[in-house]
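Build the 3D complex.
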Amino acid sequence: MKTRNVLFALAFCLANPAGASGLDSLNRMVAHPDVLCGQFAQQKTLKGVTKPLVSSGRFCVDRTRGILWHTRAPFDRTLKITRDEIVQYRNETVSSRLSASREPMVRVINSLVFSVISGRVGELGTYFDAKTATSGKSWQAELSAKNASVASVMKSIHLEGNTHISLVRLVESSGDVTFIRFSGIKTGAAAMTDAEQRILRP
Amino acid sequence: MKNVRRLLAILWTLFCLAAAAFTLLEVASGRFVPDTDILSMLPKARHDAVKNAALANMVDHAEQKALILLGSTSREDASRAADAYEAALAAHHDLIEAEPVGTENAAADAAAWLAPYRGRLLSRKDRKNLKHYDENAWLEEATAELYGMAGSTLRLLPWREDPFGLVNGWLAERLADTRARPVDGRLVVDDGQTVYVVLPLAIGQSVFASSVQEKLMPVLDNAKRQALAAAPVTVYSAGVIFHTARATALAKRDMAIISAGSIIGIVLLIWLAFHAFRPIVLVAFSLACGLSVAFAVCTLFFGKIHVMTLVFGGSIIGLAQDYGIFWLCQRAKDSKTPSDTLLNRLLPAMVLTAATTLAAYAGLLATPFDGLRQMAAFAITGLLCAWLTVVLCFPRLTHEKSFKRPPGLHAYQQLVGRWPRLGANRLTVVAGLLFAAAVATGLLRLRANDDIRLLQNTDSTALAEQIAVSRLMDMPSMAQFFVVTGKTQQEVLMREEALKDRLDALLENGTISGSTALSDWLPSMARQKENRELVDKTLDAPGGAADRLMALTGLARQKAPGENALTFEILMGSSARAAATPLWLGETAGHMAGVVTLKGVTPESLDALKALENPAAGIHFVDKVGDISAAFAHYRKLLGLFVAAAYAIIFVVLCLRYRLGAWRILFAPAAATLTVLAFLGLAGMPLNLFHLLALLLVLGVGVDSGIFFAEHAGTLPELTWLETGLAAASTMLSFGLLSLSTMPALRSFGLAMLVGMASVWLIVPCLRPKADTCTKESP
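Done.
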C-alpha cells in the first residue's frame, strides 16, 4: 500500500499539469470502439449510512445511442442515459423518465457519464481541471470540477485504466463517494446482448 | 352686426392659433406620447373589480420585461451569443438591464430551507401513492436509488435527509412549472434539438412611450446583430416592447401616408376645380383649425391620444374640407350677393349637413369603447371647428369678386349629364334586378367574426417570435386564468386546492397542460396537516418504511421534522418569492384573491374551463380574448340595431320637411349599406364592429349629400354636382387611404367606408330629377 502511494506521488510529480493536453495524450492511449460492454462492481459510501452499498451488473456504451447501466444485484434495475433523456426501467418497463427538454442538466450528466465510462477522458477537459500521469500502458487522471454547475453533480473524479477504463472513484457534492471497478470488457456489436439491444436500440 | 361677426372671426382665429401653439408645443417638447395599446380601445367596465385587478396584475408583471432567446445546437455558441448581446446592452443600463439569473444552487438552497416542512408538502404523485400505500414499493424505490449509478439522479436534498424523496418530488413538481434552468450561470431551455440561452431583460422606462421605443429599439436591434455576429444562433425576442414599438412605427407610417395622401389629393382636386391658389389656402386653414383644436381638446380631455385616433384623424381631413369647398363653390357661383347675406342664405343647409354628420359620429360617443369615443370626440371636434372656421371666417376672407366661375365645371357637368338615371324604364328594372341578385348572394354569404385576434395589429414576425418563446418557455396563458377569492387567505388556498383537484382531471385528459396556484407553493393549513398525518400514518409509522429502511442501511434516524407549518411569511422570505408573488393578489375589492394560471389552453378547452367557474364559491374564470370578442360581438349586434333605428328616425325627420320625397335622400345610403354588406359577403370578409361603424357614417354622409341635392337640385344643379363630386372624390381618397392602413380595425372601417361612399356617389346622380332640369345651364 505504501509503495503504491509513493508511486502515486512520483507519478504526479511527473504529471503534466496542463490539463486538457494531458487528457489528450491519455485519449490516444484509450481505445474508442463503437460499442463497449462489460461487468461493473460498484461500492458507495454514503454520509450517514453505515453500511457500504455494494451493487454489480453489466453495462454497455454505444457511441451513438447512449449508455445502459444494468444493476443485477441486489436489485434488478436498468438505467438508460442518452443525449435526450434519462430513463429508469424496472423489469424492462419504464419506471421514470427525465427528458433534456425538461431538465437541461440531463445533457451535462449524459456527456459526463459517457466520457467517463467510455474512457473519452479528453472530453472531460470541458468540465474539469485535470492532472494526469502515465506509466507504460497504464494511466491515471485526477479531475476536479471547473465550475458550480458541474460541481453540483460531481466534485471530483479519479480515473485509472489502460486500453479501457478500469477504475473510477467519484466524489459527489453531497460528500458521497463511489468506487466502480470495470472488468470483462468486450467491444464491437456482438458485445451487446439481445435484451440490451432492445432497450438501447429500440 | 358686421362688427360682431368680425370680432367673432378674430376671436375664433385666436382660439385656433392658441390650440395650434399648444399642439406644436406638446409634440415638440416630447410630452406627447401616443397610446399604442390596442386594448385601451376596449370597454373597461366589462369585468368586475377583482378580475380587473387580476388582469392589471398580470400585465404589470409582464409589460416592462423582455425575453431574448438565443438558440444553437451548441450551448457554447448560444452562450457566446448571449455574452455579445449583453455586452451590447451594457452601455444602456439606465434604459434596459439584464436581470440576474439564479444559480444552480438555487434549487438545492430551496430544498435546504424546505427540509423542515418534509411531509407537509407533497407532490400530486406522492400524495396519490401514499393514499394507496404500498410499503414495499416505497422501500424498494428508496433502496434502489442507493445502489443505482452514482450521479445519475438529480437530487435536491441528499438521500439521508429525504430518503423517500418527498421534498425532492414536491420541489421537482414546482420546478416543472418553468422550463428554463440555470446552467453555468446562464438560464437555459432545451427543446430537444436546440439549446437556448434565455436573457431576461428589465426595461426601466415605460415601453408605451414612443420616445423610449425610439431609444430602445436601435439598442435591441444592435444587440441582436452583435449576437448574430458572435455565433451562428437563432434569436427570438419577446416582450410588449416589440409589439408597441412596431405598432407605433406602423401607426406613424399610416398617419403620414393617410394625412399626406389626403392633403395632396385635396390640393389637386381644388386646383382642378378652381385653378386658383387661394381656395387651397383657405381650405387648408379650416383644416388646420379643426385638427389643432381636436388634438388639443382630446389631449386635455383624455390625457393620452391613441394612435388609432391620429390615423383616423388623418382621414377626417376628407370630410372636414367639404364645408370649405361648399362655401367656395357657392361664393364662386354668386358674384353679386355680399358674403354675410350669402351666409344667412346658406346657413340652414350648412347647419343641417354638419348636424347629420356630427350626429353620426355622436353615435360612436355612446359606445363603451374608449378608443371609439376618443376617435368620435376627435372627429366631432375637428369637423365642428372646421365648420365654425368656414362659417365665422370664410365670409370675412372672401367676397363677391374673389373667384371666377370654376373652370372644371363644364367637363363635370357633361359627365353628370350622361350619367344613367333611375326612372320607369327598362334599364332601371334590369339594373335593379341585377343589384338585388348581387345583394342577395352577398348577404347569404355574409358571416360575422368578432375574434379580437383578427382585429389586432398583428406583425407576423413579432407574433411568431412571441409564440415561439411562449412555447419554448412553456409560459402560462396571459389571457385565460382563474381568480379565486375568499374572506381569508386560508379560504382562498382551500378553494384553490378544490379547484386544482378539478383542474388535475383536465390535466390528465389533456384539456390543459398545466396550472399553477399559490396553494402549490403554500398548501392551506388544513392540507399541510392532512399531508403530515398521511405521512405519519404510512412512511413514518412505527415499524413502517422509514424504520425498515434504517434497519436495512444502518441509516441514523433523522430528527423528526418540526411541527411548524409553512406560512406565507416564510414563503415570501424565501427564494420562492419570485415564483409566488404573481400568484397572490392580496386584498382586492374587499376580498382576498389569488390567481390560478393555466397552460396549454386551446379554443377546445374553454368550455371545460368555463364550466369550473363558480362565483358563489369564489372561483372566477377570466378569458380576456373571449370576453373581448364577446364584447365586440355584443356591440356589433347593438350597432346593427342602432343603424337600422337611425334609418327609421332619420326617415321620419326627413318626412317632416320633404314629405314622401324623403326616400330619395335615404335611398343612396341604404343601397350603399346593402352594397357594403354584399361586398363583404362576396369577398369572404367577415363582418365586424368596425364595418358597422362605417355604415353609420355612410348613413350620415349619404344623407348629407342627399340633403344638398334636395335643397339645391332645382336651383344650382351644376354647383351642387361639383360640390358633391369634389366631396365624393376627397372622401373616397381619404377612406381609400385608410383601407390601406396596417391596422385591421381601421382597414375594415376604411374599406367599408370606401365601398359605401363610392356607392353613395355613384347612386346619388342616378336619383337626380329629369334631364331637363339637370342640364339646364345657369345664366
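Chain B has a mean pLDDT of 82.
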